Amino acid sequence: MDPAVRIEGVVKRFGAFTALDGIDLDIRAGELICFLGPSGCGKTTLLRVIAGLEQQDAGRIHQGGRDVSRLPTSERDFGIVFQSYALFPNLSVAENIGYGLVNLGASRAARISRVEELLDLIGLPGSGRKYPAQLSGGQQQRVALARALATSPSLLLLDEPLSALDARVRLHLRGEIRALQRRLGVTTILVTHDQEEALTIADRIVVMNHGCIEQVGAPEEVYAAPRTRFVAEFVGTMNFLRARVSGPGRCAIDGLEIPCATDGLAQDAEIDLAIRPEDIRVVPDAEPGPGLAGEVAALEFLGAGFRAAIRLDGAPDRAAILCDLARHEMPARRLVPGSRCRVVPGPAAARAFPCA
């Protein structure tokens, strides 16, 4: 079975700058996939190439088994939602949603029926006569989403659609978008720089950097098993500790042996060990057992727990590593800024990378 979208060797240059450098990617029918990366990584350019809003310099785009590489935007089967909503201010909500249906030559009765169906779908029944200026930002984005879905496209493109909204509305609306996408089963590509958004909403995440794909995988895979140092640094919070390879699947820091993947790394090679804050235990110095000695530099209350910054003894510049502790653990740990402690990386929680 052909993928919903197949991207083969796509290259896009702007003068001497290469925005996309040989992108290969298959997008499965019905999935919600996120292009994630920092500004300038090429994620929006790739979305625009898929839509035909930018013409690639090399490579091909297939949609539903059809080569659309050189087709104009009007002949590609997609709906798109932009960050700025791009609603027509002089048209009512109903006219905005039904705009694409007019271009398709749909009858007035068919347009009215479809618009009412979509208004119910996005939770704005009875709002068809209002104008965009009478709606909140979240409501306007729902209207933009309904307009993109009006022609029943096989592909939905979302270009940072929530970034202009405040945090509470963004959180609510991303849940609605995910639920709606699952209900309709429409293949969806979401461009975002928001890691939390990608991790919570996507079936798969495409992490991009400097016009290339660094990793493609399910959110849990990208978070827990980053394949490159860039992914480890960019997605979530990560600590890096200088260590050395002490054997197959093992490394050592100050004599403490830690399990980690060491594929391709030589015995005794210096490495940077990547460990998430939640994968590190912090114990008082008086408590017996192994661990790396240090002191608590700071404690930050996060609601569900605390994030401790620990300065390890002998670390370069006494750099601090971050460790997460559940709120119920704090009384027993007796940790305060300045107190001595030990940190203990969890088993099999670390990833090894060549030194930067």
Low-confidence residue ranges: none
Number of strands: 20
What spatial order of strands do you see in the largest sheet?
Answer: 6-7-8-3-9-10
Basic shape: elongated
Mean of residue pLDDT? 92
**Helicity range of the residues?**
10-25%
- Rg from alpha-carbon coordinates: 25 Å
Report the major sheet. 6 strands, mixed
Structural class: alpha+beta
Order of helices and strands: EEEHEEEHHHHEHEHEEHHEEEEEEEEHEE
Q: Compute the separation of the termini in Å.
A: 42 Å
- Give me the number of helical elements: 10
As a percent range, the share of strand residues is 35-45%
Q: What does this protein look like?
A:
The strands form four sheets. The chain has a six-stranded mixed sheet with strand order 6-7-8-3-9-10, sandwiched between helices. A five-stranded mixed beta barrel has the order 11-12-13-20-14. Helix 4 packs across helix 5. It is built from ten helices and 20 strands. By secondary structure, the protein is of the alpha+beta class. 24% of the residues lie in helices and 35% in strands.
Which labels suit this protein?
356 residues; 5-stranded mixed barrel; 10 helices; alpha+beta
